[in-house]
Amino acid sequence: MIDAPENRAESLERLKTFLRIPSISTLPENKPDIRLAAEFVLGELKSAGLSTRLIVDSEGGGNPLVYGEWLGAAGKPTVLCYGHYDVQPPDPLDEWKSPPFEPDVRGDDIFARGSSDDKGQTYILIRAVAGLLKTHGRLPVNVRFLVEGEEETGGEHIERYVATRPPELACDAAIICDTEMFAPGLPTICVGLRGIVYGELHVEGANHDLHSGVYGGAAPNPIQAIAEILTALKDRDGRIRIPGFHARIVPPGDEERQAWTRLPFNEDEYTRAEMGARELTGEPDIPLFERLWARPTLEVHGIRGGFAGEGAKTVIPARAVAKLSARLVADQDPGEAFEQLQRAVAAACPRGVTAEFRLIHGAAPSLVDPRNRFIRAAAEAMTGVFGRETVYIRSGGSIPIVGLFDRHLGIPSVMMGFGLPDDNLHAPNEKLHLPNFFRGIVAVARYLELLGE
Amino acid sequence: MIDAPENRAESLERLKTFLRIPSISTLPENKPDIRLAAEFVLGELKSAGLSTRLIVDSEGGGNPLVYGEWLGAAGKPTVLCYGHYDVQPPDPLDEWKSPPFEPDVRGDDIFARGSSDDKGQTYILIRAVAGLLKTHGRLPVNVRFLVEGEEETGGEHIERYVATRPPELACDAAIICDTEMFAPGLPTICVGLRGIVYGELHVEGANHDLHSGVYGGAAPNPIQAIAEILTALKDRDGRIRIPGFHARIVPPGDEERQAWTRLPFNEDEYTRAEMGARELTGEPDIPLFERLWARPTLEVHGIRGGFAGEGAKTVIPARAVAKLSARLVADQDPGEAFEQLQRAVAAACPRGVTAEFRLIHGAAPSLVDPRNRFIRAAAEAMTGVFGRETVYIRSGGSIPIVGLFDRHLGIPSVMMGFGLPDDNLHAPNEKLHLPNFFRGIVAVARYLELLGE
Predict the structure, then answer these.
(1) Which of A21, A219, B359, B451 has the greatest count of CB atoms below 10 A from its CB?
(2) Which of B300, B330, B363 is the last residue of a domain?
(3) Rg (CA), chain A
């Protein structure tokens, strides 16, 4: 019923409407679009039959949380459906084959910023609940929705809200569709996520830009200093050299490591076709999935300062700023990791400059036990819909809400992912595989039915 | 006469007109301003009484050279006055106290982009010749002018032109006002310049930007690779680690080294007041003036790639470009230095990325003998006007034309500088000390008279 052609067509058309809203949370100029996207989600939940409201931060400034509930299944579990309506900036724009906010279906894929991360997957949850209510007039379990608009910028608003343990979030488990299937057609549940510490490294030399001819040989160069710090913090082989950084890491068990070796995987295809790279890098003595899922990283995202335009300018910049993040794994603590980073930056700072690492946001890593009943039911639902045994993987990305739900609500998060590895998250030409979108709606509906039995 | 108040006032007003033209040679959008500045110089020379014309590259595309001549002093030497009407970009704009192209006189200084480098100093030459012609109806020597508009971007046009050894450049010596006085009131002649190799370091990893969560631990990071290369090419102490790079360097002689120690100099004031820095950096075992004037440098000017805007974007960039330059000293060769840099970049390139160093422009270092008669006359003229013994220094900057005049015309260049060390060349709040401007005009006129005796 849910999968009837007219429902599919409506799901796709409504998804396109959602994707057309450029709800980029990191850019102030897109604030009105954030509001539009929140109201879109609110409208969808309301017309599905849920009681809804926008939760706006009492201190103002935050992006609204969209809340919805249907609590008519007395005695049944309560499930909290989480997603986010905000997206990453689309730049570099000139690398998109179709405009990022004009959804374009090419073959089995829909291309648009947010198609996979996370509007498309959030909409899977909404359409599953809407479909069940339309078909049966009721749901097999109690359902709450919490859809946020700051996931890509640190989610401060939802963090404050969840930390108050509000009664409307009382539930038994969360469902999150913001991860990916390990391979096309292979049902996948993600049981671990990396955390993150994201910040800015501010380096200052002289108090004004200097001519590199007149002062070169005596003047401190903040960009060279950033290079010194980056190479001190991570060696040529990708080993992080921050004292104490690895102390709390829980290595994966033998069983999990062996399961990872059985995953269908072609390293050459992954490297060349998916990443478009020449070769893989990173700690040479650690297997790939462990590097991606169970080891911390340190990456520089960009450097601002000096002259980087066309032509030549012979300037020694007064200051430079590097965007840096470290991914964290269980049981690293974001606060402790930030302090370790700060100390390592201070220790690596060359003479003539000051260097300061400033936090933008942090999130704890998470790891759930696959034997949990909510995880097992999700695996059964996905196996049924996709016709293959569900695999358990981890993800290298960070979904801070999982750690918040664990810490403040004491609930496990079930991460049913319907993205694919080549979805180009945070990059040009982001896409969602439409068969996964439609099957995802069926699988989530089936999952809720299983939980209600 | 030249120094009469009405001449001073006119010199200042005309200089302001010159400085109002944003003739930034590195930015294509300022092409019309380049033309305006060339025509300004042409008009000034013509109204002074010289025969003038614009020399436009036959291959097109280059910025016009302004040529002028007065050849009525039979039997007297011929002097070639060189300057440039193009300027550096003014960014960062928000650090200027007055707009860069609205000349502002504050106290004894005039603030504007190009005030010292080199419109103000070029205009000293023009006003000296105009003043002599106005006063005496003739000049004591034969004079040619060659004023270019590509000095800040590599001067390809003038290089091709000078290399043809055109008859209109036949002369005995060149005068260049594009350097600085060692200290306020201390007449100074510059006898050595560093050369330069300026280029871009292009580093490519994957063929598209990647999510740092999903791929961090396996993906190559081009900015981290640039950091690896920068730190491999220059160590923490500022020692360049490029094989063969130092082989041709001619160290200064004992006499010159000793003269440098007698220069009036307060290192603390230089560091804190002039540079605005905490401490000096660079090769620890080499004295400051030798580091600045007689040692090569390697500086990074900026890095483009990834995300460096406000907020957070967790991207591993596909590619990054660093602007790099090396200053060279006698007898380093720009072509050889470029090849050494290319090889060192290739050797330092970490795995997973490609790195290529591409030349933007190069210039040879130069060194002239202070016993030359044209240098001695200049020293006498400056000593007379400023009332103090003229000192000989070198400059850390690069004036490629000096090497070209030497190689193609076989003439020495006399570098009479009227800038000051705190003129903020290539930086916000560039200025020219007006007493130097007015005295410079008198000193150049006196120099021409001495040469004609």
Answers:
(1) A219
(2) B363
(3) 23
